[in-house]
Every structure is written in C-alpha cells, then in structure tokens.
Design a protein that fits this description.
Number of strands of chain B: 3
Order of helices and strands of chain A: EEEEEEEEEEEEEE
Shape of chain A: elongated
Strand order of the largest sheet of chain B: 1-2-3
Distance between the termini of chain A: 42 Å
Structural class of chain A: mainly beta
Strand content of chain A: 35-45%
Largest interface: A-B, 30 and 22 residues
Strand order of the largest sheet of chain A: 6-8-9-14-11-12-13-10-7
Shape of chain B: elongated
Number of strands of chain A: 14
Strand content of chain B: 35-45%
Structural class of chain B: alpha+beta
Oligomer: heterodimer
Largest sheet of chain A: 9 strands, antiparallel
C-alpha cells in the first residue's frame, strides 16, 4: 500500500483521503476487535483495550495505564481471629479501586471493634477513603479505610465503632472506593 | 476433541514500602494448551500476620520482608491512625 507525503497537506491515503499531520484527523481510527497496549496480548474475546497483566505505570496525569478485575478475600483485622464466609470482587481502573464484599459474621460475643483487612490494593497515603453499605442485617455500616494500608474498620453513622458482637451472625455487604498507590 | 485444563499460578507478588505483601493468583483456562481465559484473585498480608495456609513462596517472601524493624514500624503506623 502506498502512502503519499505531500508536505504541508499531510498524508494522502490510497483512497485519496488526506490526514493532516497537525490538527483534527480526517480519518477516525476504528477497530473491530480488542487492541493491546504496552505490549499486552489483545484479548481474543469482545472488543476493547487490553492492558498488560502487570501495570506499566505512567506518571502522566492524563494517561489511563491500568485495568484489572478479580476477586479478593476479606479477613478479620480486629484481633479476635474470626473466620468469615465471604464473597468479594474488585475492579481497578487506573488508580481507582472499587472493592465490593459480602461478609457473614460468625456467632461471637467478642467485644473488639469490627475491622476488615485483605484489600486487593494498598490505599494511597495522601488521602482518606471509605465506602458505603449495600445491604446489612445489622443496620447501616460505615466502612473506613486506613492510609497506606489494606485494612479498615466499621462504624455507625454517628461515629461509634461497631463491635464484633454487634455483628454476631449478621451479614454486611459494602463497597469501598479508594485511590490505590499505583 | 479439544482438551480444556485449568492451572493456578501466583503471577505477582508485591512488597510495599511499609511491609504489606500483596499477591495475585491467576487461574488460567487452557484449550489444547493455549490460554483462552484468565481470572485473578488478590490477597494482602500485613506484617506479623498469621501465615497459616498461605502459599510457600509467599510465606518465604513475608518472612524475609518482615524484619523486627518492619513489623515495629508498621504497628506504629497502624497505632497512629484511627480507622
């Protein structure tokens, strides 16, 4: 296929359309399959953008450099050694992480403050984060997150930390939204 | 007739500055030896956390990274945050 460089006018393609070197393109690229960036192998399914399995982080504030989805395991961080039954998923888009979980507390009389660990990515250290409750058999739970960590605690909306005993045999579903450190 | 197999591998282990160890387990579905799908499961471990049931290579990295100094610094970081 021959392309013609004609100086000030730009690049002329075989179908006689011309794309300017500077300014708005006259021909808009269109892809019917998935494209891979950063040497990523393009996914064989669907149509979209495939990022590298290991993030190639960009320092540019306007560059989307990562996408990943998967599951994670919430664990007890209260010091009581509780075993949960859980279901949890996450999506990471750039630095933003949305981590959802369903936690079923065991029967317990432990009075420690309810706390969760095991987040899929470390929170950034310069901000504070939290989440919101989707469903709960206890009542509204306000989940908080530590800076530069993978853990948080569960509070009432009035600021009191909920205890493990409060959540005995209860189910809480909530979503964290936070900025990760990568 | 195609043959489908499932493999699990820890394809990523990261140690953060404050000693948190994060690892990712990839579950890969192979069709006639060629990968056709992949899912991820992530786990994070904090300094001095119980490592019972964790993969041996992750335990080895945790034990190397979690020096007394790292554990003490991490616990101090946790203590100064009210979350």
């Amino acid at each position: 296929m021959a392309l013609t460089l004609d100086g000030t006018a730009g690049i002329t393609f075989p179908n006689s359309t011309t794309q300017l070197v500077a300014g708005a393109p006259l021909v808009t690229p269109s892809f019917t399959t998935t494209i891979g960036v950063g040497a990523a192998t393009a996914s064989a399914s669907g149509a979209g953008i495939s990022f590298p399995a290991t993030q190639s982080a960009s320092s540019d504030a306007n560059t989307l450099d990562d996408y990943e989805e998967g599951t994670w395991t919430p664990t007890d961080n209260s010091g009581a050694g509780l075993s949960f039954t859980t279901s949890a998923t996450y999506v990471k888009v750039g630095q933003i992480v949305i981590a959802c979980c369903q936690i079923n507390y065991p029967s317990t009389a432990n009075g420690n403050g309810a706390a969760i660990a095991g987040l899929p990515f470390t929170t950034a250290s310069q901000d504070v984060y939290g989440g919101f409750t989707r469903y709960s058999t206890y009542g509204y739970v306000y989940p908080t997150l530590a800076q530069g960590g993978t853990y948080g605690s569960l509070y009432t909306t009035t600021g009191s930390q909920i205890t493990n005993a409060n959540l005995s045999s209860k189910r809480v579903d909530f979503t964290y939204v936070y900025r990760s450190n990568a | 007739m195609s043959t489908f197999t499932e493999t699990k591998v820890i394809d990523q282990i990261t140690v953060t500055e404050n000693g948190i160890v994060l690892y990712r387990e990839a579950t890969r579905i192979l069709k006639d030896g060629e990968q056709i799908a992949q899912t991820y499961h992530r786990t994070s471990l904090t300094p001095a956390q119980d490592l019972t049931g964790q993969p041996a290579n992750v335990v080895a990295i945790c034990n190397a990274a979690w020096t007394d100094e790292v554990i003490a610094a991490y616990q101090a970081q946790v203590a100064q945050q009210r979350v």
